[in-house]
Amino acid sequence: MNKDTENIVTNDISSELSCPACRYKTAHPADSNLGAIRGNTERFSNTQFRLWKCPQCQTIISIDPVDFHDIYSDYPLNKRKLDIFAQGTFGNLLSRLRRAGLQKTDTILDYGCGNGIFVDYMKQHGYLNIVGYDPYVPEFSPLPTSQTPFDCIINNDTLEHCDDIHGMLQESLKLLKVGGLLYLGTADSEPVDMANLEPEIMRLHQPFHRVIITEQGLHNLVAEYKVDLLQSYRRSYHDTLRPFSNYRFLDELNKAVGHNLDRAMDPTEVNRVFIRKPRLWFFALFGYLFPSAFEPAVIVRKRPPL
Ligand SMILES: [Zn+2]
User: Fold this and answer.
1) Which of 11-25, 56-70, 175-189, 202-216 shows the lowest mean pLDDT across its residues?
2) Given this model, what pLDDT does residue 84 score?
3) How far lies 209's CA from each of 100, 275, 276, 302, in Å?
4) Within 13 Å, how many C-alpha atoms sit on residue 192's CB side?
5) CA 204 to CA 267: how far, in whole Å?
6) For residue 60, how far is its CA from the centre of ligand 1 (angstroms)?
7) Taking the complete model, does pTM exceed 0.85, yes or no?
8) How far apart are CA 130 and CA 244, in angstroms?
9) Dist. CA 193 → ligand 1 center (Å)
10) Which helix H or strand E contains 89, and what residues bound it?
C-alpha cells in the first residue's frame, strides 16, 4: 500500500457537526451515523472521505472541508459531451420544465452548468435566452447578471455540490423573477446504510457531493421560502425508457469499470466492458424498471412579497 492509499480515517470528530439542511448540531455523533468512502474518480479513488448522517433529517454530509477550485480543476464530468445519452436525459428534464410552463422566450439561468452542455441542448431546442453559471468553470464564471431577474432558474445536480444549501437557494431566489420557475433536482440520501457505503459510491460521489438530502428534506427546504410547489419528482431525470438513458445503467456501467468516472467516460473503456459484461446491455435497455437510486426534484414558483 503506498502513501496515497494509506489514508487513515478515524471517527475522531474534533469540532461540532452541523446539518446544513435542518441545522441539527452535535459534538458527539453516534458511530452508527459515521462512515467513510473512497472517491469515484481517478484522482480520488485512493482517498477516503468521512461522512456523517444527520440523525434528525437523514441528510448525509461530507465532513472534511475541500478547496472547491482545486477539486473542480480536473473534474471529469466537465468533459461530458452532448451525446445520445445526454440528449435522452436532457429531453426528460426539458419535458418537466415545459410541463411547469416554460416558454421559449423565457430568460433562463442554468446555475452550476458545468461545461454548459445543457445550455447547448436548450439552444438547439429553441430556448435561446439561456445562460450558464459555474464558479469553477472559467467560461461560465462570473454570474451573468445582464438578464436578471430570470424567468426560470435551473439548479440541476447543483445543490449537493454546495456546503451551504440554504445560501445557494437564497441566491437563486434573489435572481428569480416573482412568478418565475425554479427547478431543484438533487441526489438522494435514502436508503443509505452508513456501515456499507461501497454500493452507494456513485450517488455519494466524494468529495464532490457535500450535502445529500432526502426527498422529504428537499420539500422541507423549499417550504422555508416564499415559493409554491408546482411539481415533485422522485425518479431521476436520468430515468427514461430510451435505451442507455437511465440511472441504473449509469450505475452498472460505473460498477463495471471499478467505479472510476474517468474510465466510465472513456469510449475505449466503455466498448471493452460492453463486450466483457453482457448484462450491461440488459440495463441499457431495461434499467428504467430497476432503479438503484432516486434523485428527487421539485419545481417551485416564486411568490410575490406580502
Ligand atoms: Zn439534518
Assistant:
1) 11-25
2) 84
3) 27, 31, 31, 27
4) 33
5) 24
6) 8
7) yes
8) 27
9) 16
10) helix 84-99
- Containing 270, the helix (H) or strand (E) segment is helix 267-276
**For the chain, where do the domains classified as CATH 3.40.50.150 start and end?**
76-205+216-241+289-302
Mean pLDDT rounded to a whole number for the chain: 93
pLDDT at residue 8 in the model: 46
Domain at 76-205+216-241+289-302, CATH from 3.40.50.150, 3.20.20.140, 3.30.70.100, 3.40.50.300: 3.40.50.150
More confident residue, 2 or 79: 79
Residue with cell 437523514: 58
Q: What is the pLDDT of residue 147?
A: 83
Site of grid cell 445562460: 131
Is the pLDDT at 2 greater than 50, yes or no?
no
Which of these, 132, 135, 164, 138, lies nearest to 150 by C-alpha position? Answer: 132
pLDDT at 239: 92
Decide if pLDDT at 3 tops 80: no
Question: If you search the block for the grid coordinates 449509469, which residue do you land on?
Answer: 250
Query: How close is the Cα of 57 to the center of ligand 1, in Å?
Result: 4
- Residues 283/249, Cβ–Cβ less than 8 Å: yes
Cα of 7 vs centre of ligand 1, distance in Å, is 27
Task: Name the 3-class secondary structure at 249.
Answer: helix
CA–centroid distance, residue 52 to ligand 1 (Å): 10
Confidence at residue 217, expressed as pLDDT on a 0 to 100 scale: 97
